[in-house]
Amino acid sequence: MSSEILSQNEIDALLSALSTGEMDADELKKEQAEKKVRVYDFKRALRFSKDQIRSLTRVHENFARLLTTFFSAQLRTYVQISVASADQIPYEEFIRSIPKMTILNVYEVPPLDGRIIMEINPNVAYAMVDRVLGGKGISLNKVDTLTEIETRIMKNLFERAIENLAEAWSTITEIDPILSDFEVNPQFLQMVSPNETVVVISLNTVIGESSGMINICIPHVVLEPIIPKLSVHYWMQTAKKEMQPEDLQSLEKNIRKTEVPIAAILGSADISIEDFLSLDIGDVIQLNQKIDEPLQVIVEGIPKFIAQPGNYHQKIAVQILDTYKGGDEDDE
């Protein structure tokens, strides 16, 4: 079925043509019965489903939030990073789409095979360097004359920034990103064959008054071992996965050691604001609790037990008489 949606005018024209005999309904049915030919470009082979692309987008939305926090702390200025798009394209197309001279960080992601690229627009990269050096975050574009000091600052900054990728990917797999190469010319980066499918996640980046793009290029060879984990079915299975008995025992053991505040209520009273404002040292407030009535014991602010007052080892204490009937139990 064609995905084209007809307008109301086109529908009216079609009905009119059928009623006047300009168009034969049998011929229309015959055309629909014929096999439709769809053009397929083998150079742009789609190796990831839309579901898997959405999963990668969710992972890198988390990565964008982590980067925003990291760079805000490091640069001490306004930083906003968000996912703009996620597409699967041939590696050759990715290389053509980025500037001829730009900042390219190549990372290994063991235990996964292959390497990934983080391309940072020079305007963004130089704004970061300017902030690190105490400037206002002015963006320049002189990648061809990158000094050793600027190179070192950028490498240190992006080497620490990529640690957030491991945290973002922890929901699907454990990785240990390592900066293996720093380059400014995309033509020198032939990591995979030109027709190899890569996933490119583009991040909108704003640093102070400067803005640009950060592109993350992930080849298919990197994602191939974890493709099953990118499906919604896997995420649902993971969410429903039952805890192991030893995990439950450990959790129960830790919960039993948790301290909770407990208090015995001696009584309460209602007084007017006027009486409250006139209270002075030595005044007596009469409580609604009789001296021979049991006390209410509350845990985390919730009534749980009935007790009687007394002392134990020369300290004030209460003895539990019964569980509290009412409150949460009545609600259930």
From TrEMBL:
<dbReference type="GO" id="GO:0005886">
    <property type="term" value="C:plasma membrane"/>
</dbReference>
<comment type="function">
    <text>One of the proteins that forms a switch complex that is proposed to be located at the base of the basal body. This complex interacts with chemotaxis proteins (such as CheY) in addition to contacting components of the motor that determine the direction of flagellar rotation.</text>
</comment>
<protein>
    <recommendedName>
        <fullName>Flagellar motor switch protein FliM</fullName>
    </recommendedName>
</protein>
<dbReference type="GO" id="GO:0003774">
    <property type="term" value="F:cytoskeletal motor activity"/>
</dbReference>
<dbReference type="Pfam" id="PF02154">
    <property type="entry name" value="FliM"/>
</dbReference>
<feature type="domain" description="Flagellar motor switch protein FliN-like C-terminal">
    <location>
        <begin position="254"/>
        <end position="322"/>
    </location>
</feature>
<comment type="similarity">
    <text>Belongs to the FliM family.</text>
</comment>
<keyword id="KW-0472">Membrane</keyword>
<dbReference type="InterPro" id="IPR001689">
    <property type="entry name" value="Flag_FliM"/>
</dbReference>
<dbReference type="GO" id="GO:0071978">
    <property type="term" value="P:bacterial-type flagellum-dependent swarming motility"/>
</dbReference>
<dbReference type="GO" id="GO:0050918">
    <property type="term" value="P:positive chemotaxis"/>
</dbReference>
<dbReference type="InterPro" id="IPR036429">
    <property type="entry name" value="SpoA-like_sf"/>
</dbReference>
<keyword id="KW-0969">Cilium</keyword>
<keyword id="KW-0966">Cell projection</keyword>
<dbReference type="GO" id="GO:0009425">
    <property type="term" value="C:bacterial-type flagellum basal body"/>
</dbReference>
<keyword id="KW-0283">Flagellar rotation</keyword>
<dbReference type="InterPro" id="IPR001543">
    <property type="entry name" value="FliN-like_C"/>
</dbReference>
<dbReference type="Pfam" id="PF01052">
    <property type="entry name" value="FliMN_C"/>
</dbReference>
<keyword id="KW-0145">Chemotaxis</keyword>
<keyword id="KW-0282">Flagellum</keyword>
<keyword id="KW-1003">Cell membrane</keyword>
<keyword id="KW-0975">Bacterial flagellum</keyword>
<dbReference type="InterPro" id="IPR028976">
    <property type="entry name" value="CheC-like_sf"/>
</dbReference>
